[in-house]
Amino acid sequence: MKFKFKLGNFFLTLATAAAIVLSIVLWIFIMTNDQRFSHLSNQTQSSPVSRQQNRTRNKSLYDLYIPTNSYGFKDGKLYRLYDSKNNLPFEFSKNFQKMKVTKIKALSQKQANYELMLNNPNFIQLTYPDEVTFKLFANFNEKNDHREFNRIFVPDSNHWLYLGNDSNNQLYRVSIKNANFDRLRKYAKTAHFKVPMTFVRLKSGYSAFYNHSTNWQVYSYLTSHQSDSYFVARLLGTSGVSSRTNKQGRTTYSLNYYTRLTVPQSGPNNEHDYLYTHYEKNKVPAATNRLLDSVYYVHRIGLTEQDLRFFDADNNAVSYTNYIEGIPVFLNDHDVQVATNFTSDSVTVNFNSINFQIPVPFDGETKSLEATTQMVESLNRHGLSNENIERIIVGFHVQKDHSHDSLVNLVPTYYVKAYGVWQTANEWQKQDMSVYQHELESEGQ
């Protein structure tokens, strides 16, 4: 027994010594290997931009930054194209990710030439709701190219594309490889949902004006919401909350002095709006980095991203909203799903937790919208002039269905952006326009 005890002590001592020696060797290896050590250091200190770039511009970036509208010609007339079975923007995006750009050539910046392209029946057009940069997409392979575009012209050839910037009428010719848009052209020819329209120039670019009153389908969805604790855990961590305060029914959770999350007021009037704030002294990111950083925050929030798309980039803000049947969804009358704002002191993210979970079979309900020109003329008479209208779209207004707590109806409505604000046409009709005009004159002084 005594011999066995001493032998056990010997092996235990030997194993302990080996572990100590191995630890010392590994420590020396890590500390003397600059590449590995600097890699670890960069990971702990990386910014949202570098974290997003390390994702190698992954699939979800292309899902969020997918064109949202398609247009084409039939018998010489321009139509908005949509097909519920064959998604034209998605088909384009699949090839867009594979193609390689070999050359970008700047062409005309004249409005007359731009409008010739808009009305050329030889192109399929796909549009983003606002400008994006070349550098956002890795396949453009341009190191410092922050030039912007929001319109893509697809010709009959698979060797080039044309890109356009509605705001300044700039056209680009892009030479490409490894792309085949034949299926996109086939889908465009067979698209069964077509609305005739024209492009009309407004303050920020060209908007689709529908030529006559049109019936738009009303859709219904069962919705769900994540709990407050879900977002607290994702944005602040499960054990890092340092304080909790309550003001006017809304609770704010804080992680030290720099990060906080304000959750909605509970009760029947809960609109499910959250505000995440991270304080950090920094320069406001450039346009491309704002687009990339906002993707990082969308991922971090943890919303369902299946139908979430880039919607607007205004000054230092970038916003996203759900697109259902090719139409953007507005919450609480005129809010989007996620709105990120960058300043020199902080990043704020306003977001809504609604999840459009289960579509209810279409029951045939539609809503008729008047011709766009007729709607605009009514706004003009009210005091909202064309020179102050930035964009016009058809969007879904979310209305609660009283037959079920979780059921909502998506009602097609004209939305108008003016003075930097999105509202329904009916909301603008109720506004005192002299107030906006006075603010505009004050800013100009």
TrEMBL record:
Recite the UniProt keywords alphabetically.
Membrane, Transmembrane, Transmembrane helix
Q: Where are the transmembrane segments?
A: 7-30
- Identify the Gene3D superfamilies for this entry: 3.10.450.310
Asked if Transmembrane is a keyword of the record, the answer is yes
Q: What is this protein called?
A: Regulatory protein YycH domain-containing protein
Task: Give the taxonomic lineage as stored in the record.
Answer: Bacteria, Bacillati, Bacillota, Bacilli, Lactobacillales
